[in-house]
Specification:
CATH architecture: Alpha-Beta Barrel
Helix content: 25-40%
Strand order of the largest sheet: 3-4-6-9-10-11-12-13
Number of strands: 13
Strand content: 15-25%
CATH class: Alpha Beta
Structural class: alpha/beta
Bound molecules: flavin mononucleotide
Shape: globular
Radius of gyration: 19 Å
Number of domains: 1
CATH superfamily: Aldolase class I
Order of helices and strands: EEEHEEHEEEHEHHEHEHEHEHH
Length: 355
């Protein structure tokens, strides 16, 4: 039996398979409110055999948006716009997760297809960014260092966002602590130069993330799976390391996280990455610590046999794919066919099943 199409249970949730849709920003929200676009976009994967769909990085505060067009969940109108999307996913028999995010010093930037690059000036609808330290991402505007009151507010923003996400019907919460956004900025010594209890030692750099894990776990109760996406290396000298990532992951599990979604990079512009098929899988294996820490692998995993191999080798417990789902929203149906596994087809599509 294909491991990729075997079920996985975490807390009260059973994922029908282990081929999941990775969170992908669509830069198509209005005032943080998701639109009809998001509804059709996400529902197509639910009809395509995904075991879980994690909706894009969704800001827990207005200043935490990567761009003015990011999705948000810091108010009730935003929550209410998510609810029918989750319903659509559920109606197609798939589970829905949301990635809660704050972009920190990489907030207030132009969306990828805008005419301009870099930071959006306040006059053009941008805003002052915040970060652990007043250290800019190369080429972006300088952030303001957060004081302890701002950190307390941040923790509470994640808590209220998680409550709203549960109220909207989401089955899984993922905290975005990767790709150089705010929680990753706290973890890495390259962006965190604080001298208080939130900077310096690994324990101090991890303090904000661990508090958020703890507070979100309390807010969502014992039944809901809580994932944390990390960048397990900065791909730059003096940065966050895979060993540190594994240690922080173990601490996060202790605070109530269930699975670590292992990605990498994004913290500094001068990163040097050797990008090739499955390039982040060794990082997932390191963080997994021989099976003690449940992990997902992501990054250029584009074929059924390749994904199956990652699970077979014991490098990960589940697979997130991103761009392959954009190329083929029915990637899950095709992958099951290729592995000779069974997956639930939408009743309306059954006549198209490969025989
Ligand atoms: C259009 C696009 C948007 C993305 N947005 C997010 C995001 O919101 N949150 C996140 O953690 N990663 C984001 N990513 C990264 C993907 O989740 C994934 O980790 C990455 O694309 C590598 O996987 P892949 O090779 O299967 O695409 C994005 C990637 C793409 C292509």
């Amino acid at each position: 039996m294909a491991l990729l199409f075997s079920p996985l249970s975490i807390r009260s949730v059973t994922f029908a398979n282990r081929l999941w849709v990775s969170p992908m920003c669509m830069y198509s929200a209005v005032d943080g409110v998701v639109q009809d676009f998001h509804r059709t976009h996400l529902a197509q994967f639910a009809a395509g055999g995904a075991g879980l769909i994690v909706a894009e990085a969704t800001a827990v505060a207005a200043v935490g948006r990567i761009s003015p067009r990011d999705a948000g969940i810091w108010n009730d109108a935003q929550r209410d716009a998510w609810a029918p999307i989750v319903r659509d996913i559920h109606e197609r028999g798939t589970l829905a997760g949301i990635q809660l995010a704050h972009a920190g010093r990489k907030a207030s930037t132009w969306w990828p297809w805008a005419d301009e690059r870099g930071s959006v000036a306040p006059a053009d609808g941008g805003w002052q960014t915040v970060a652990p330290s007043a250290v800019a991402f190369e080429g972006f505007a300088q952030p303001i260092a957060m004081d302890t009151a701002a950190i307390e507010e941040l923790v509470d923003d994640f808590r209220t966002a998680a409550v709203r996400a549960i109220d909207a019907g989401f089955d899984v919460i993922e905290l975005h602590a990767a790709h150089g956004y705010l929680l990753h900025e706290f973890l890495s010594p390259l962006s965190n130069q604080r001298t208080d209890e939130y900077g310096g030692s690994l324990e101090n750099r991890a303090r904000v993330l661990l508090r958020i894990v703890e507070v979100v776990r309390t807010a969502i109760g014992e039944t809901v799976p809580l994932f944390v996406r990390i960048s397990a290396t900065d791909h730059a000298a003096g940065g966050f390391t895979p060993d540190e990532a594994a240690t922080v992951s173990e601490w996060a599990l202790g605070q109530g996280a269930d699975l670590i979604d292992v990605s990498s990079g994004g913290l500094v512009a001068h990163q040097s990455i050797d990008v090739h098929p499955g390039y982040q899988v060794p990082l997932a294996r390191t963080v997994r610590r021989g099976g003690r820490i449940p992990v997902s692998a992501v990054g250029l995993i584009t074929a059924a046999a390749q994904a199956e191999q990652v699970l077979h080798e014991g490098a990960a417990d589940a697979i997130f794919a991103g761009r392959e789902w954009l190329r083929d929203p029915h990637f899950g149906l095709r992958a099951a066919h290729e592995l000779g596994a069974s997956v639930a087809w939408p009743a309306q599509y059954v006549r198209a099943r490969w025989r």
